[in-house]
């Protein structure tokens, strides 16, 4: 084996068991500016090929041990960027078809003309350059298409995020307008309704004091009870739309949750509900009105218990991130119908046969008072999850 390494027009490996062919072809190609490597059989030729990775192999068709056709197939399979020209002592159409199918770029019949040999080599190398460049362009095209697809997906993701954020902002604006309208309405109603309601209660109590008939006393008691119910609805209406008097102090969320769950212990036991508490990270105390914070959990726990009359699981997760205290309340009830999820915080909206439909409106008003937010993270047949985020800074 002989090698020569310098700046050249290209690298060519000659594999032939005839030393005369090796020497003659090497001289011709070196004189034409090529770097030439030689091997006298296919096995040693494959070793040289692995080391020098030539652009072209001139391969003898008839060789001992590993013949040229077998070597050709191995070269094209393992080194697809290396093109092969076959030397053969006989030439016919059947052989040409077989060689081309196996991956040969050309074949030259021995003995050959030196000028013809060089021209055939240069022609194959030009074709090789064009085909490899086309492959590079196709790969670049695939990369560009992949990048464009990735950009499109990222753009779609961002548009989706912005659209969802816009929809959320619009929904919050609409909700705020509803609460504001409710505030104006409830303030007027409170004055217009409570005055005559107080008179009804007063005269009913006076009437009751003059009655001896137990049946009639019962009727008056029902009047007083309904008057109290109207007054309670008016109070809830005002709570949902306008912040009542409040008193700030340091509040510990974990303690409020514990106390509220304890208050619901009889109902929880009655309905066979399992309570799961996951206090992953307990946020620091923050300034708030304890009664308002307690009302958030009272209303949410009450709704969850109502949805699990036949038992279930109530899970309360308390955590925090860099900016917010995070509370998740999950139940295993039947879930909120999809068409109702967007309306559940609306005043007077309820799917229950009883109730004012103001509980979640009150929760929303309180959460917004503390610059927080409440969302329905999930609601399906496996249950509902409410997520509340309150800023760590408090109010």
Plain-language structure description:
β1 (11-15), α1 and β2 (35-39) form a beta-alpha-beta unit. The protein has helices spanning 19-31, 42-52, 68-78, 93-102, 114-209, 214-241, 253-263, 265-270, 290-306, 338-341, 359-369, and strands at residues 11-15, 35-39, 56-60, 83-88, 106-109, 249-251, 273-279, 286-288, 312-320, 324-331, 373-380, 383-391. With 395 residues, the chain is an alpha/beta fold.
Concise summary:
The protein has 11 helices and 12 strands. It is α/β, with parallel strands linked by helices and 395 residues long. It has a 5-stranded parallel beta sheet, with helices on both faces. Strands 7-9-10-12-11 form a 5-stranded mixed beta sheet.
**Using DSSP, what is the number of strands?**
12
Strand-residue fraction? 15-25%
Number of helices: 11
Q: Indicate the low-confidence ranges by residue numbers.
A: 1-6
Computed CA radius of gyration, to the nearest angstrom: 44 Å
**CATH class wording of one domain:** Alpha Beta
State the assembly state of the protein chains.
single chain
Mean pLDDT equals: 85
> What name is given to the CATH topology of one domain?
Heat Shock Protein 90
- Architecture of one domain in CATH? 2-Layer Sandwich
CATH homologous superfamily classification of one domain: Histidine kinase-like ATPase, C-terminal domain
Q: Report how far the terminal alpha carbons are from each other.
A: 86 Å
Helical content class? 55-70%
Main sheet record: 5 strands, parallel
Order of helices and strands: EHEHEHEHEHHEHHEEHEEHHEE
Shape designation: rod-shaped
Q: Structural class from helices and strands?
A: alpha/beta
* Strand adjacency order, main sheet: 2-1-3-4-5
């Amino acid at each position: 084996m002989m090698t020569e390494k310098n700046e050249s027009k290209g690298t060519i490996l000659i594999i032939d068991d005839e030393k005369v062919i090796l020497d003659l072809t090497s001289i011709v190609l070196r004189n034409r500016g090529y770097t030439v490597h030689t091997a006298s059989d296919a096995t040693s030729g494959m070793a040289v090929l692995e080391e020098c990775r030539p652009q072209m192999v001139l391969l003898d068709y008839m060789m001992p041990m590993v013949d040229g056709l077998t070597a050709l197939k191995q070269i094209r399979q393992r080194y697809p960027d290396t093109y092969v020209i076959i030397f053969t002592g006989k030439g016919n159409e059947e052989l040409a078809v077989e060689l081309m199918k196996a991956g040969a770029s050309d074949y030259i019949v021995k003995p050959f003309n030196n000028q013809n040999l060089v021209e055939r080599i240069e022609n194959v190398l030009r074709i090789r350059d064009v085909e490899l460049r086309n492959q590079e362009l196709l790969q670049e095209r695939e990369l560009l298409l992949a990048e464009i697809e990735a950009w499109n997906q990222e753009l779609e993701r961002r548009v989706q995020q912005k659209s969802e954020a816009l929809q959320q902002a619009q929904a919050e604006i609409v909700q705020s307008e509803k609460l504001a309208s409710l505030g104006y309405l409830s303030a007027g109603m409170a004055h217009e309704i409570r005055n005559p309601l107080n008179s009804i209660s007063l005269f009913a109590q006076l009437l009751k004091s003059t009655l001896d008939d137990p049946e009639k006393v019962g009727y008056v008691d029902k009047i007083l009870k309904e008057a109290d119910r109207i007054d309670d609805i008016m109070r809830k209406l005002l709570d949902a739309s306008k912040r009542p008097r409040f008193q700030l102090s340091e509040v510990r969320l974990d303690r409020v949750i514990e106390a509220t769950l304890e208050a619901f212990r009889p109902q929880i036991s009655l309905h066979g509900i399992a309570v799961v508490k996951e206090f992953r990270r307990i946020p620091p105390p923050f300034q708030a009105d304890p009664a308002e914070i307690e009302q958030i959990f009272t209303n949410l726990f009450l709704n969850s218990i109502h949805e699990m009359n036949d038992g279930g699981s109530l899970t309360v997760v308390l955590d925090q991130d860099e900016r917010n205290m995070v509370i998740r309340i999950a139940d295993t009830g039947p879930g909120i119908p999809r068409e109702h999820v967007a309306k559940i915080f609306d005043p007077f909206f309820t799917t229950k046969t009883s109730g004012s439909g103001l509980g979640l409106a009150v929760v929303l008003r309180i959460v917004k008072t503390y610059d927080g937010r409440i969302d329905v993270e999930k609601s399906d047949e496996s249950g509902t999850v409410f997520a509340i985020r309150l800023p760590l800074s408090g109010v």
